Amino acid sequence: MKHTRTVLAATASAAGILVSAAALAGSAPGTFPVSAAVQSSCTMGTINNVVFPAYNVFGAGSLTANATFQFTCTKGTTFTSVDLVAASGAVGARKMSSGASSIGYELYQPSGDGAAASCPNTATWGVGTPTGAGKGYKPNTVASRNVPTTLKVCAVIPSQGADVPAGTYIDTVTINVNYN
Fold it and tell me: Residue 169 is part of a domain; what is its CATH number?
């Protein structure tokens, strides 16, 4: 029993030291911020090629073709325009080339957003603030990371029948998604 009392007394004494040491300790509170910045950004998704049907040097009339492209952006991104910039030139001067020969074509804005939009071929699709023909196109939908925006490009070769040699005629078009 004597041994038990000594252990209890030693334990009680140690506990008293700990309690008195804790009673003498203090704290100095402080804070710091935790943050992350999310920048507005967009990325291109699927881009399909515009491929016209076979051009007939003995034919007449226009040829039409269309294709779609997709892009996604940070949620809440504000768009100014989507521009199409042809390597061959500006609206009204676009052409596909094969060597020194070329075939003129034009790109038009769709009737609305989405792959099912029609191609009225009335407003050319160019560059700049969307205010009419020859300018950029402003999507009606807001693209976000989970829901891509799909736009249709409408293309027209205004007339066949040019005396051009056989070959593959190409041009390169750059898509610029402009946003704030």
Answer: 2.60.40.1090
